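step: validate -> pass
step: tokenize input -> pass
step: predict -> running
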Amino acid sequence: MAGMRFDLALLLLAFGSVLFLSTVSADLVISKLDRRIDLSSPIVRATTSLKVENNGAEAITEFLLPFPENQAKNLASLSVIIVEGKGKSKVSSESLPVRIVNPMDSPPSLVWYSVTLPKELVKGGSLNLEIKAILTNILRPFPEKITQADVQLIVFQDSAHVLSPYAVHMQSLTLKLPEPKVESYTKLENTKFSGSEIKYGPYANQPPFTYTPLAVHYVSNKPFVVARELVREIEISHWGNVQVTENYNLVHAGAVILGEFSRLEYQAQPHLRGASAFRHLIAKLPARAHSIYYRDDIGNISTSHVWGDSSRTLLEIEPRFPMFGGWKTTFTIGYGLPLKDFLFKSGGERFLSIPFGSPIDELVIDNLIVKIVLPEGSKFSSVSVPFPAKQSMQEKFSHLDVVGRPVVVLEKTNVVPEHSQYFQVHYKFSNLSLLQEPLLLVFGYFLLFVACIAYVRADFTISKSSSSYLAKLQWDEVRSTIQQFESIMNRCLIVHDKLQASLRDLSRTGDLQACKAARKTADSTLKELLKDLKPLISFLQSSPQAAQILPKVEELAAKEKELQEKIMQKHSIVVESYDKKSGSKDIENRVTALEQKIVLLRQEVDDLVDTIDEI
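step: predict -> pass
step: emit ->
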């Protein structure tokens, strides 16, 4: 089978292990073993039923289970129970204690687990055990890259004979496939392929560490849904609600799609042009879940659906795009739960009992972080988790918090649906702490109303005898004077413009009397304006508040006076020339230099007016 290989070093080391475990192997034998491996999903579930007999002279208190290193590092769960009876009378015990051990001279490619028996297995005694192992990340897509139209092919490798330090008198293996489509599989003696199952055995009288490699290359379009990280925040409110928020970072860990994705082909034939992709996930929420939402970084996703009955609530999560191999997505789901369904009292303490894992079906979680946010004022006592998990403490501040809320953080890697078991968080909480937030709100509103009353009744006006008030009055007077000054300057400029216009009318109509009348009116108006201007300038010169702007005012008055004189001079020359019947060229020559000075002066006056206006 091209592209596939077996770990031959493991095989050699397994045979070498017989030397240092010969004593252990001689004491126990497995009279019958039936192994069943379920490959119908990306999570591999192996169930081994066996009967152990003690043929040694001494009583046995433990049973050893070796796993290849590549399987041990991906072992999500391992449980061992004692089974008594058959059929409907079958009775199972609680899970037996399992721990990792390191036998002397053990080969490095094997990881050993020791199962502690509830009582000694005496000479000639027998025991029926059922071993359940759940493994992740041991199925490999082959080929690793496929096109949109290809089906997904998976390779599974293991041994047809169980890897055990004990002799096995009779054993068999059954592989359950997701569908009856196989590219190839290892054919050994007593191999049978029927429907979607491949059976190996029975095989009799196998010595310890018998290792017979097998490989199955089969069709599986089941999506490899893996959460690289899942952060679950469970916030307890003693006002009647438990708020659950779950942040997912998902990836399709199956065969990576090769080439471009065609949505048109996918929409037309989704089962052929995207058989290995998935469009939705199902989350099984508690029956009384409410206020359910589903969103991502963009916002709310309206393609989700919720339905349920008295026993459960189902949330259908549909991403914004179909998920092909190698594609990633992030999203958040949240929901509320009734407090009385999950919070209980026991001996003066309260404890929260809620599922640990994700509610999504067949989800593998590389790293799961569960945060339990206790109410403010709580005192954390203990946490009880039915499997090993890393524990730490944090603190969180929320609305109306003063000292913060204690947060219990549980972290576990390689999590599977079987880990979705109830765990308990114990803490102490006084009912008086419930009054903190209402009292805080009442006190806050009281302070607000007191502040409003004080503001309405207080007089914030500046005293009329204060220096700042007097300075403000003086500046207001200065500003009013400057505005009057600007008004007079603008009126003077208007008179200048009228005189200039009378000269233009004279050159056009020759009406000398009208031009002289305009001059007479201008002289009278300017004389009155000058009379109004003198007291304003005198006031500004005497006011300290006008010290900054006074130089500009005086400069503007001087420039306007000079401009006025030049315009009057020009007017006199033009009128005199018309009286003497001079030609237009002669008049133009006499006033050219004067006109240039008038233009420059007018520009300077306008600039000064703008400057004073800005100040």
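step: describe -> The two ends are 92 Å apart (CA to CA).
step: cleanup -> pass
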